[in-house]
Amino acid sequence: MITEHATGHPNGVVGQADVLVALDQILASRPFRTSNQCSGLLRYIVKHSLAGEDNLLRERVIGAELFGRPADYETSEDPVVRLRVSDVRKRLAQYYLSARDQREVQIEIPSGSYRATFHWNAEAPATRSLRETEALPGELIPEPDSALPTGLTIHPVAVEVAPFEATDVPLHSRRGARVAVAAGALLLLIALCVVALIHARSPNRAFRAFWAPWIGSSKPVLISIGSNAVYRFQWDYVDRYAREHGLEASGQEFYIPLKHGDLIPADELQPAYNSFVAIADVSAISDITTALTKQSVPFQERFPDDISFAELRSNPSVLVGGFNNPMTIELTKSLPFVMRSGSEIIETEKPNRRWALHIHVGSHDTADYAIVTRLAGNSDEPPLMSVAGLGGFGTQGAAQLVADPSAVAALVSGLPKGWERKNLQIVIGLKISDYKIVSREVVATRVW
Predict the structure, then answer these.
(1) Where do the TM regions start and end (predicted)?
(2) CA angle 122-123-125, nearest 5°?
(3) pLDDT confidence of 443, banded at 50, 70, 90?
(4) What is the overall mean pLDDT for the chain?
(5) In angstroms, rounded to a whole number, what is the distance separating the alpha carbons of residues 83 and 68?
(6) Do β-strands 317-320 and 221-225 pair in parallel, antiparallel, or remain unpaired?
């Protein structure tokens, strides 16, 4: 059932054995070792893609088989499969971005499909030879396609040489002159390449300096994930309603219709702690874990209740979320910029200086704000990073900033000398239009 071909491989067709070897390598890699759900989902998709069983690669079937959803659940209301497959695609991208993990067989899940495709990576040997070049200590090895900045062209240097008369200048002298000219042009070309390479690496240097306390730690980074405050019906209430209305086949996941004025006793509700994560926070976590993976930094993703303060005192950490993450509120409450009730950020020394979440009623346009907190740590305390928005878009935008080497380089370029060893906070203003972040700017900073 495998029909993918590649012009660069003598065998053309990818064999099932080759795919299974590639799958084992992927599942053993760091992006997939940290997620049992993503590993199981990828194995399921590859297995049924190899068998040509497209009927088992439908969203509702996957939801029922892997995520315990009812066979007839409403996929438009429960996007669990779409979210998890998107996460698998991102982890595959992380895997193939790794300099050590370029394999001959590549597995992909095209957007809009749940069927895997397989193809030979004809450039894998050349890619490995370039990427496995030994780097200087503390330096990044540039990607083969990013050694020079985009759009930079090195033009040959035209050197005009006056003709020599054979009777005046010996033949060996004329040859020496040509060699000298060629050597000069080559040296100039090398110099231009070195300058371009340094320019290309500078964002990575700033990025590594920004994340140095986390990159240099021998312990995994603890990522604290905020979750939304959600109440659910008690299970026995749902079971009772299902029996009374003939919905036994619907499982636990269905909406109980409520009319205006209906009263629900409080003891029929239960808080769903650590159960629901907003899509914006999922995006933020994905950006941060991608950045850590590229730097070969191990990490663990947990809800705040699953992290003890003893672990925080010994492990580097990243807190994702603002008001929906109690750990963020608690650990940043005495810093220069803090989040306060009423969905606003204030400067503690100047309480009148504040930034508030602004939502336009009846419009998709929003003005959001976020705080990026970077506590560099010391011999007694590990480093702590926080990306916290007043709203979901704020958290998402803050995470995009700290995960992007170019954005980090632009950000730190205006900081005082020695910022690498200091603590800092940055307040970011974001404009959102039609559910998309359209602009982002720094409105306040503090370094101490």
Answers:
(1) 179-198
(2) 105
(3) very high
(4) 79
(5) 15
(6) parallel
Q: Report the alpha-carbon distance of residue 177 to residue 161 in Å, rounded.
A: 9
Q: Is 221 helix (H, G, I), strand (E, B) or coil?
A: strand
Rounded CA-CA distance 372/337 in Å is 10
Contact call for residues 279 and 325 (beta carbons, < 8 A): no
Decide: helix, strand or coil at residue 319. strand
CB 4 within 8 A of CB 117: yes
Query: Structure tokens of 188?
Result: 């100039």
Calpha distance 91→1 (Å, rounded): 25
CA distance 366 to 391: 10
Residue 441 scores a pLDDT above 80: yes
Q: What's the half-sphere exposure (Cβ side, CA atoms, 13 Å) at 50?
A: 15
Strands (E), 79-188: 105-108, 117-120
How far is residue 256's CA from residue 182's CA, in Å, rounded to a whole number?
Answer: 81
Which tokens sit at 417?
A: 């000398």
- What separation in angstroms does the CA of 5 have from each of 2, 29, 43, 106, 336? 9, 26, 22, 12, 58
Q: Is residue 388 a contact partner of residue 398, using CB atoms and an 8 Å limit? A: yes
| DSSP 8-class letter at 293 | H
Are 272 and 230 contacting, i.e. CB atoms less than 8 angstroms apart? yes
- Phi/psi region, residue 362 (left: phi>0; alpha: psi -120 to 50; beta: rest), is left
**Token pair for 183:** 């050597």
Q: Among 373, 219, 223, 383, which residue's Cα sits nearest to residue 297?
A: 219
Q: Using the predicted structure, report yes or no on whether residue 251 has a pLDDT greater than 90.
A: no
* Domain limits, the chain: 16-127, 145-208, 216-228+276-447, 231-271
- Rounded to 10 deg, the angle between the 36-50 and 59-67 helix axes is 130
Distance of CA 436 to the CA centre of its chain: 17
Quote the pLDDT of residue 142.
34
Q: What are the pLDDT digits (tens) for 24-33?
A: 999 988 888 8
CATH of 216-228+276-447 given 2.60.40, 1.10.10, 3.30.379, 3.40.50: 3.30.379
Q: Are 203 and 412 in contact (CB under 8 A)?
A: no
| CA dihedral (223, 228, 233, 234) positive or negative | positive
Residue with tokens 């990522």, as numbered in its chain: 223
Strand order across the beta sheet in which 350-356 lies: 337-340, 344-347, 350-356
Q: What span, in angstroms and rounded, lies between the C-alpha atoms of 343 and 361?
A: 16
The residue among 49, 40, 151, 140 whose CA lies nearest residue 97 is 140
